[in-house]
Write a structure and sequence with these properties.
single chain; Rossmann fold; GMP Synthetase, Chain A, domain 3; 22 helices; 26 strands; about 35% helix
Length: about 600
Amino acid sequence: MTPTPALATINDLFFRVAAAANPRAVLWQDAAGQWQPISSDQMYQRVRALATALLRFGAQKGDRIALISENRWEWAITDFAVLAIGAADVPIYPTLTGEQIAELLRDAGCRMAIVSTFQQFEKLAAVRAQTQLDRIIIMDSPAPQGAIALSELLAGADAPGSAHDPVFDALAHSVEPRDLATLIYTSGTTGEPKGVALTHGNIAANQNFAAADFGFDSTDVCISFLPLSHVTARALDYVMYNAGAQVVYCSQFDKLPQAMREIRPTVIVGVPRVYEKIRQAVEQKAAESPVKKRLLGWAIHLGSRFAGTVYDGRQPDAITWKIANKLIYSKVREAFGGRVDTFVSGGAPLGVDTARWFAAAGIALWEGYGLTETSPVIALNTPLRHRMGSVGAPLPNVELKLAEDGELLVRGPSVFAGYWHKPAANAECIDSQGWFRTGDVAHFDADGFLYITDRKKELLKTSGGKLVAPQPIENKLKNNVLVANVALVGDRHKFIAALIAPNFAALEEWAGRHGVGGQPHARLVADPRVVSLYGEIVREVNSTLASFETVKRFRVVPDEWTQESGELTPSMKIKRRVLTARYAAAIAELYAGEATARGESAS
């Protein structure tokens, strides 16, 4: 078999899609809920038509064009079209406010924007005077005044069938690896957004190695549901397109369970919160009856004995495991459609307890690690080489080393050239030899597997001088079905404390069974029985921690933390700075009397 040539640009990837002769390269859901196919020929023709229109509107090589949309087939068409003409796209989260979007458009110098819906257009129209925009294209029809409908630009595009346009092809092939492909504004857990400038060569270099061990091919199916404005989701779609697999667009997260049942994907890539929610849903359903709860507990306890075998990609021979698989583990897989053979976790740290639970339930979760600035994958566990608890072995085309303080440094062709118009930030994070400071504290084991301890800037240093990594402890607490999210605090304090956001669906079900239901959230979380309930959860986790790491006090908050309300990033990581500001009064109460506090239990 002739090896697949390495990609030099993303346009090389696009031409690979165009040549696939795949009648169902993409699936999308129409207004009636029916799944509609788009062939690889149609992909090519629609990209060609939109690229031609952008040129007609005055777009030039090097321009930045904003892309504000949920996951849908038009996102991919727009992305490929912008890159084909040598311009760079600026993907922006559709959940941002108009003012936030305007700030990014000004910083990127965008003169054109392509948006998904009338709602997105209205946000943009309200702030248009604050930007340099002279043209807006809208994916939905009909177009409002002040916008152009994408459907008009694509009218008749499919007619040429498989015939190629040599002028368009020559233009797309003229784009070079050094040319800017995209500006991705990092949401960040702290600080102002910065535009990560990634070239075609950066992304192509990562694509050539990131998924090499998985062997994806045209038989694979993947649902694109993580926001494409985030580098993890976009890189995954590129991997699938490059492998000739089918990409299925799910524009609304609440439609994902139905999409999984109907599409039955073979590949799932999710942020850790997706897997945590699946686990919590399984445990919550089992809690409905004592028999189900005992059965799940038995199956997970049994499965933990065979977790290593599962993680190595083998099915245990034990008859008891096979019985548990039929009764329990297969039901967990059904939550993902029942056909997934590759589960990957990325975008945020996966707790080792979550990885162990899924392995005990018959599912190997391959955790990876990367950053927007590294296009994104730096290391990844794969079916061929893996170690649970690590983020995998580094890709062969990146170099890694540790600074004196344990910070991970990375260098290689997938590492970005710098932040857009941020010379001071670039000087701070990239040294003269090209080493990029990741901001993550890490270590390697004897076999070269990489372990990430925590974000360097998020390490909590107690007044006694002890460094505490909050994420592993937060992940342990989130393993309980009653906990939706946690933020540890305690920097420069005598001890560690925690803000706990409940899983209100599970808490209200528990409250109903224990005679404390029907209360507003603020009263419910203050009820002594609820406080005691969460105290037991904290004490159980504390028993696994060193004394200086233990959570001495906690507060159950009456709020659900979401991306929309501002506490979470799009990859579902907590915004620690936002939370400490929002709950400043509660944190002050947690540390009241701190000077005289001694080894007390959480309360």
